[in-house]
Major facilitator superfamily (MFS) profile domain-containing protein (Gossypium tomentosum), 539 residues
Amino acid sequence: MSRDSNTRRRIPPGIFLIKSVRGKDWALKSYRYIILLLTFIAYASYHASRKPSSIVKSVFYPESLKNSKVSPWPVGNVFIKEEEFVSFDRNRVESQGWYPFNQSDGTSKLGEIDVAFLACYSSGMYVAGHLGDTLDLRLFLTTGMIGSGIFVGLFGMGYFWNIHVFWFFLSMQMVAGLFQATGWPSVVAVVGNWFGKRKRALIMGIWNAHTSVGNISGSLLAAAVLDYGWGWSFIVPGALIASAGVLVYLFLPAYPEDIGFSGITDSSPNLESLSQAEEDRTQKGPVVKVEKSSGIKEGSGSRTGIGLFEACFIPGVIPFALCLFFSKLVAYTFLYWLPFYLSQTEIGGEYMSVKSAGNLSTLFDVGGIAGGILAGYISDKLNARATTAATFMLAAIPSMLLYRTYGSISRTINILLMVVAGLFVNGPYALITTAVSADLGTHSSLRGDSRALATVTAIIDGTGSVGAALGPLITGFLSSKGWDVVFIMLMVGALIASLLLSHLVIAEFTERSHKSVPSSHGQQTDEATGSQPLLSNQR
């Protein structure tokens, strides 16, 4: 009786209600679709709530008040109606900015706001990862999302309360950063709990489009309500993530065991589905069957985690974490400063409005979606995580150089080069934070039934987030010396990121050179991640 009560306590209330009404359970495949959808929505809303600060930078600090005499970017009035564009541009010329960001040190203060958020985000990530492996992931994620929504909204309330105190905005971003740290370790752990390693990089590469979708939707939402006051650019995304948090609480099962499925492990002979007998029993039961196996493992409340120090010694964790440091330095500089760069840079002899620049910057994330999927596909095909990530980072260097050099020639060239840069910059970032983290979090060196998905994800992404904090901060200072200096910094960062994986790349090439000599078991082991070949069970 007690066991049944504990199991019901772990079932999300929304799923429990639906199962009670239907009188039967869903198949494992259906639950996996639900997991992918809910975690996609969850983390897309996280990223959407981070975009407003980049959209309003030129409102806070209207450094260059230049009129545009052409239709809005990029094609006529697709993004903004022409009459609205003229009105908004006139308002921008008359605007004096928002104190204290409209002073001579305005860009520095904006950089400090970014680094305050990201510093708290990265430091909180280490704690959040360990907590995610020991607490109920559903409740942990829900708390983080609602808390993020509240403090993002409070930042926007500074507009309506007419607040001009720098420490208010700084403190709101810092607290929001701590709540945001709950997101990534949690969603990666949930997906890792429900999916085996077969085609993991491709699945997660597609799933990781939530980052770019969140950036795009956040930019469009913030820009859409900007005319009503910059405060709404924060309040609307804040309400979005809080609402998504309620959805997660109602419907997200963090572990298969939470809803009665036996443990899904990578050592199972068939990772992709339950046995036919179990599927039939699931579908035909006249009443809700919570426990499907007498030997069921406990779910959210009884997982054993490992310490941060111990997780650092998992092979591959440190190299990938350091690589992500520089990879996110580059990616987050674009995330936070690209709209500002576009509004302050003469392209084709003309300048665009703040709103149009914010909308245009979403095309960088369109390239990022393609990059994440492509990197995942190549990584699965070659079974070479490090080689794929390093190659993409090297390719990002000429793509950024071309964007800076030729992006100002015309609108069309700027769009094409921006998409290409987004593809190569976000590709390795997406691969490392998803498939690589999940692989290492279930590494063969972990003892017994220990799980380190959230902990390893926190170490890798937390280290990367330190770089994400430094990039926008340094850009705030370097941008006053010219954008060429900023792009040199970004290209050097991409080069270092690729070099940090050189040892793992050599190991992967060495392993591939021995492929012609099959082992006694007909399998090879990935030295970089400790995973078995992803497609070996299909041969």
Remarks:
- The chain has 23 helices and no strands.
- The chain has a mean pLDDT of 77.
- Residues 29-65+105-258 form a domain with the Growth Hormone; Chain: A; fold (CATH 1.20.1250.20).
